[in-house]
Structures are given as structure tokens and as C-alpha cells.
Design a protein that fits this description.
500 residues, alpha/beta, 14 strands, 41% helix, 14% strand
Length: 500
């Protein structure tokens, strides 16, 4: 009979959090965070039955003071790497075996081994059980790496039963892995390969049906890359009654039949990497599959036509960029009515082609990897200093999400009447809480701009141009971002000193 062990799976707390994490939005909904990393419940599903598993996400709950596992697995990002090392040192000092995994440590193995007994490099499916077997035999190796990518056709359902799902808003699901594109700032094709792998649709549907929540984010890096696969998946998702978001490239707009099927199946949001409006920067980053702004505008209209929001991602900081790119992005999103904007400064992520290039050019800073979260510059730029891009970033962020700007965008965005279909229902208590927030934050606010946008939204609801839940959800979403920006501004002097 096999000996039993206690395994702790950890996601470390992040020191600097940008608004795209929507931590303030989660708080408004009474949650601790939007969702936890899929790595934790996935690794738990790959773990043999002789392990009693505890999952801790430090953004949600603290590590129990007197809990002593036999082995700890810690997932790492650049933004959580220093906390991961701190935790690794603490557990090792207690004689507990520590294994690190995740994208950051996969490209910083030597550094990681100073704080851990072992590193799982890249995908864990073909190596995690080997690591645990060696641990049981007292022969754990320093590194584990699979010679081939996992097949990925059939995946075990993640162990959501080990996650306090009442403290998160949505669950993550992954149907595909890999990306055929080769953007030099992105780690996906380096980490998961350029050859796409697709799960059996039955296997995906089985997992979705078992989810404890009806709000889902498909974390695939390009969910609709294979249109035939996407069409088949939409038909199977439609009867499940979930509300979901995903990531896709701009070419999803070329298939209007697919867009309709996505909307019918519960898709309410697509994160699209526009990245830049500067064609020279698109060429520089090797994102040649993106088109010019004129094509962007046509694509935006098509996607909005089917009642699907666009979460538009932009990056500024490429060698061909000037600070005027920020103004271009502001004007473009205002003209097209795109209110949901993810704005980033270019960061050099370990393992990417960009990181290798900048290292050769001696343009990497000695700033902590924890700063690589999209708004704290961690590299040297060509046409501006780190402080200049940070200041312009913050100025643009304030402009993008001012209530006056959002009011103008809301008029463009909702006036077309594309968002009249109600979304997934929520319970009465949450409806009541959100109604109270709307009342105090907008209806009786001393801020004229907030009162103005509320009355504009209300007017469009009365004219049946927008469903009431989607109009109020817009206000709540933007309130979360504005609260986060206020937190940034309270620390602005600290950030500027850090960058200087």
C-alpha cells in the first residue's frame, strides 16, 4: 500500500497589480479575485490519489500558519517570482520539498534552483508524476522536462472541488494550446509551440458541464484559430447556458456565421490583441497577420453587430513608436466607441525573442521582474525614457477611463442597438447589492460626469437600445477600473522613484 503525502499547491501574491487583473471589480462583486490560475487545479488533477491536496491562492487566502505539507508546488509568473522565491526559502528551511513551475521559472532555472529542490520546465502533463515518484523515493531531480509536448487531446478535468469558487467570479477552461504566430514580445509560441493542439470536443464539453460556475473564460491564446473546430464547439456550447469570454485574433471578424454562433452560445467578450496602430511597429513585432486601422474599424463593427464586447489590447514601446502612439490609441478607441481597453507598456518577458534581442543590445534594466505587469517599464526604449513612457501611460489611462470619455464611448457603443439581449442571470442578493452601488456611486453622486453617464445609459435602456443588465454592468465595470486608477495615483510618487 502506497504511503500518503500532503501536497500544497500555491499561487503567490502579486506585489504590483495593474487594472487588467480587475481586482477592484472582483471586490465590487464580493469576490477576492476574478479567477485563479488554471495551473493549480490542473496540476491537482494530474496528482496520484495517495496525495491529500490543498490549493492556496494568496490573492484569496493566507497559508495556514501551522499547516505543514510534505511537498509544495509553486506556480510562477514574473510578477510573482520574488514572492515565490521567498515562500520556497521558508518551506525548505522547514525541511519541506519545494517544486517550482510556470512560465517565469521555465526560463530562469538556475535562479530558481537557489530557492527550490526541483523545477518543472514547460508543460507538466508528462513530467509531474515522475517528479512525485522520485520525491517518494528520495531521489528528486533538479529539473524535469518532457522531451515532447503533451498530446492534449484528452485532459482530466481540473480539481475545482479544491478551490473556494465562492470567492472567484469565473472558471478558466483551455480547449487548445499553441499559437502559429510568432510575435516577438509573446511567450506563447515559445512555451507551447507554434503547432496547434486541439482537445476532443466531447472532453471539453464534459469539463464545462462539471464547472461549479456559469461564468467561464477560455484561456486559449487564439480560441477561433481553427474555424471548423470553433464552429463545432459552438454548437455543443450553446445548450449549456454559460456566459463566457475568450481570446482571438482580429480575423474572427471575417466569419460572421461564427460570430453569430458564438453570441448564441453565450460569448459576451473577446480579448483581441490589436497591439499597435503603427504598421511599422506591427512589422517590428512580427504581427503581420494584423491589418491597418481601416480594417480594424470594419472588424470592430462586425463584432459589435452580434452583441459581443471587444476587450482591445494595445502595447506602446516598440522601437518604431513615439509617445504620440498613446494619443492615436485614445483617438481610435473614442472614434470606434471601444470602452474596454487593455493598455500596456512594452515589457521584456523572459524567454521571448524580444528579451533575447534586448539582452544582446544591453537594453534590459536591473529592475525587479515583479515590475513586468504592463504599466511599470522594465527596459530601455529608443524614442523616450522609462519615466516619459510611464507618465504618458498614466495620463492616457486617466483620459481613457474618465467618465466624460466613457459617456461619449457609451453613446457610440450602445446606440446601434446591438446589446439588447440580456446576459446570464445573477441572484437577487447580488442584484440588490449592485443596485445600491449604482444608486450611491452614480444617481446621487456629487460628480456631474458620473450622474451624466448614468442618465445617458438609463435613457438608452428606456429606448430599448440596451438591455438593463448590460447597461448597469458597463457602469460597474468602469467603476472598478476607476477605483484601480485611484489606487495607482496614490502610489504615483513611489512608482516614479522606482522607475528613476
Amino acid at each position: 500500500m502506497k504511503k500518503n503525502y500532503k501536497l500544497l499547491l500555491l499561487s503567490p501574491k502579486q506585489k504590483h497589480i495593474n487594472y487588467q487583473a480587475h481586482s477592484e471589480l472582483a471586490k465590487i462583486f464580493g469576490k477576492k479575485r476574478l479567477m485563479i490560475p488554471l495551473a493549480l487545479p490542473t496540476i491537482a488533477s494530474l496528482t496520484p490519489d495517495n496525495y491529500k491536496i490543498k490549493i492556496i491562492d494568496e490573492e484569496i487566502e493566507s497559508i495556514p500558519k501551522y499547516y505543514k505539507p510534505d511537498i509544495v508546488g509553486i506556480t510562477t509568473l514574473s510578477a510573482t517570482s520574488r514572492r515565490a522565491f521567498e515562500l520556497g526559502n521558508i518551506f525548505r528551511s522547514q525541511g519541506i520539498a519545494v517544486v517550482l513551475g510556470g512560465p517565469y521559472i521555465s526560463y530562469n532555472v538556475e535562479e530558481g534552483l537557489k530557492h527550490a529542490d526541483s523545477i518543472v520546465i514547460g508543460e507538466a502533463e508528462n513530467s509531474w508524476e515522475n517528479c512525485l515518484q522520485d520525491f517518494e523515493n528520495g531521489q528528486i531531480k533538479q529539473t524535469y522536462i518532457s522531451e515532447t509536448k503533451c498530446e492534449f487531446k484528452i485532459q482530466k478535468s481540473p480539481r475545482w472541488d479544491l478551490v473556494p469558487t465562492n470567492k472567484i467570479f469565473q472558471c478558466a477552461v483551455q480547449a487548445t494550446r499553441g499559437c502559429p504566430f510568432n510575435c516577438d514580445f509573446c511567450l506563447v509560441s515559445e512555451m507551447f509551440g507554434r503547432k496547434m493542439r486541439f482537445r476532443d470536443i466531447d472532453n471539453v464539453i464534459e469539463e464545462v458541464k462539471a464547472l461549479p460556475l456559469k461564468w467561464v473564460f477560455f484561456i486559449d491564446d487564439n480560441f477561433t484559430i481553427n474555424k471548423e473546430y470553433a464552429h463545432k464547439l459552438m454548437k455543443r456550447l450553446k445548450p449549456l447556458g454559460i456566459s463566457w469570454a475568450c481570446q482571438a485574433s482580429i480575423d474572427v471578424a471575417n466569419d460572421e456565421e461564427l460570430l453569430k454562433e458564438m453570441a448564441d452560445a453565450g460569448c459576451f467578450n473577446i480579448l483581441i490583441g490589436f497591439e499597435s496602430l503603427n504598421p511599422n511597429s506591427l512589422s517590428e513585432m512580427h504581427k503581420t497577420h494584423n491589418k491597418k486601422a481601416k480594417i480594424y474599424k470594419e472588424a470592430i463593427k462586425k463584432i459589435h453587430k452580434y452583441g459581443i464586447q471587444i476587450n482591445a489590447s494595445f502595447i506602446v514601446g516598440f522601437d518604431n513608436d513615439t509617445l504620440f502612439e498613446f494619443d492615436n490609441i485614445f483617438n481610435f478607441t473614442l472614434e470606434t466607441g471601444m470602452a474596454y481597453v487593455n493598455l500596456h507598456t512594452l515589457s521584456a518577458v523572459y524567454g521571448t525573442q524580444l528579451h533575447s534581442k534586448l539582452k544582446k543590445e544591453n537594453r534590459l534594466t536591473d529592475l525587479s521582474p515583479e515590475l513586468g505587469v504592463g504599466f511599470l517599464p522594465n527596459m530601455e526604449y529608443v524614442n523616450f525614457s522609462r519615466l516619459e513612457i510611464f507618465d504618458k501611460y498614466m495620463e492616457t489611462l486617466i483620459r481613457l477611463f474618465s467618465w466624460d470619455t466613457l459617456n461619449k464611448k457609451a453613446t457610440i457603443y450602445f446606440n446601434g442597438g446591438n446589446f439588447t439581449k440580456p446576459g446570464a442571470d445573477i441572484n437577487f442578493l447580488l442584484k440588490f447589492k449592485l443596485s445600491m452601488i449604482i444608486f450611491f456611486e452614480f444617481i446621487i453622486s456629487k460628480d456631474k460626469s458620473k450622474r451624466r453617464i448614468f442618465h445617458n445609459i438609463l435613457s438608452m435602456i428606456k429606448q430599448n437600445k440596451i438591455a438593463i443588465d448590460k447597461g448597469f454592468a458597463f457602469l460597474i465595470y468602469m467603476l472598478g477600473i476607476n477605483r484601480h486608477i485611484k489606487k495607482h495615483l496614490l502610489k504615483i510618487d513611489e512608482y516614479r522613484e522606482l522607475i528613476k
